[in-house]
């Protein structure tokens, strides 16, 4: 584990499925596996880098509201729109209270 990342409250250990393939204009459900997901001010988004700095605005990600989230996993739905980068592996990123927490590689628009 790298020492250059700050301590985080929310961490993504893996995605379920490991490689998320999301077709254009289709709702694609998947889960984040890790810890800290029961916190209230979480925002999930797609980024082009592992530091969550370059948000892909053409992919909308929402937390599945009608399910009960636990601290260990979070169900989300991604919907890529026209203009989303295709065929490139992207990062699923998470913020807590507006502060970047973690990202996991494995999201692709197909």
Kindly report the spatial arrangement of strands forming the biggest sheet.
1-3-6-5
Number of strands: 8
The protein's oligomeric status is single chain
Helix and strand element order? EEEEEEEE
- The proportion of strand residues reads over 45%
Low-confidence stretches: none
- CA-to-CA gap between the ends? 31 Å
Structural class comes to mainly beta
What does this structure look like?
With 110 residues, this protein is an all-beta fold. It has no helices and 8 strands. The termini are far apart. The model has no long low-confidence stretch (mean pLDDT 91).
In summary, what is this structure?
This protein is an all-beta fold. It has strands at 11-16, 20-22, 28-35, 42-47, 59-63, 73-80, 89-96, 99-109. The protein has a 4-stranded antiparallel sheet with strand order 1-3-6-5, with no helix packed on it. It has a 4-stranded mixed sheet with strand order 2-8-7-4, with no helix packed on it.
Record keyword descriptors for this entry.
8 strands, 110 residues, globular, four-stranded mixed β-sheet, four-stranded antiparallel β-sheet, 0% helix, mainly beta
Topology:
Layout: E1 11-16, E2 20-22, E3 28-35, E4 42-47, E5 59-63, E6 73-80, E7 89-96, E8 99-109
Parallel strand pairs: 2-8
Antiparallel strand pairs: 1-3, 3-6, 4-7, 5-6, 7-8
